[in-house]
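Morning F.,

Quick status update on the modeling queue. The single chain you submitted on Monday has been processed. Sequence for confirmation:
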Amino acid sequence: MGYEFTIMSADIDEKGIRHEKPEELVMALAEAKADAIMSKLQTTEIHEKDGDPTLLIAADTTEATTTKIPTGDYAKDAQPTLLITCDQVVVYKGVIREKPSSKEEARHFIKGYSGGHAATVGSVLVTNLKTGSRRGGWDKVDIYFDHIPDETIDKLIEEGIVLNVAGGLIIEHPLILPQVKQVVGTTDSVMGLPKSLTDRLIKEVL
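Structure tokens below.
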């Protein structure tokens, strides 16, 4: 989208937030992440300083954070003005799937997709840290699979990355991509940040 950004972990208990509808769940989690990160930031300094809009994006976990941020000095150094928080779940046969809790569960998830269909439901929430304005939305993508060989599943499990994503689903992975029959929606949404939705929400809060 052409923006420069920094990543920060929200460190929330996602299992403590429950909703039956996937759209409500991902929006509630995005809201909770935004609230958690805002409580870490020295927002008074952000409000007092002007400048070009800068982005701060929430990572799901500390392990996913590519840039560690010392909270006490962050506001005066980077002065973020927009906070973007997201969440995503996979829906399979009407059941919400979050990150697999074990290798066995990840294997069960992926085997279920073989020759079948799943959907991702992802949320985006943009908060203007200077004005407090918030806009959010969600996006859904349907994914259809050919047969996924057991040896492919074994390699994915051994690699381990599928344990860190909703539903153990990574369609852009070179082992999975050849097994994807059809994607109804955008790949960037499946990867966790729908660009067109995010861009629209950014414009709405500026």
